Amino acid sequence: MKSNAPLSDLAARAAAFTAERDWAQFHDPKSLILALTGEVGELAELFQWAAPSGEGVSTTRAGEEMADVLIYLLHLANALDLDLGAAVTAKMDANDARFAVTDVRSTAPRKA
């Protein structure tokens, strides 16, 4: 199933889901980061013994785990009153400036 839902719409849906269930009381940043870490672990587990290419990993399962990761990121952004879409855009703009194509094409950038 394809979706063109903007990140802001997904963030609003995540906020509504939380509000309807009165779960905001449990969505402090620390708890959300711990839950996010668990979901990243579940995603990593799918690839733990797979080939480097990911061959053999179910794209359905990978999509489910990636969705869980994104949902927790949206919950964390909501808890911090942060526009995640704007943060991603700003970071990508900074990466464009930091890693000029002419300087880094076909190289693995090192951490500065």
From TrEMBL:
Domain NTP pyrophosphohydrolase MazG-like, chain residue ranges per copy: 29-89
Keywords: Hydrolase
GO molecular function: dCTP diphosphatase activity
Superkingdom classification of source: Bacteria
Database matches in SUPFAM superfamilies: all-alpha NTP pyrophosphatases
A GO cellular component entry from the record: cytosol
Family matches, as Pfam families: MazG
One of the GO biological process terms: DNA protection
PANTHER family hit by this protein: DCTP PYROPHOSPHATASE 1
Listed name of the protein: Nucleotide pyrophosphohydrolase
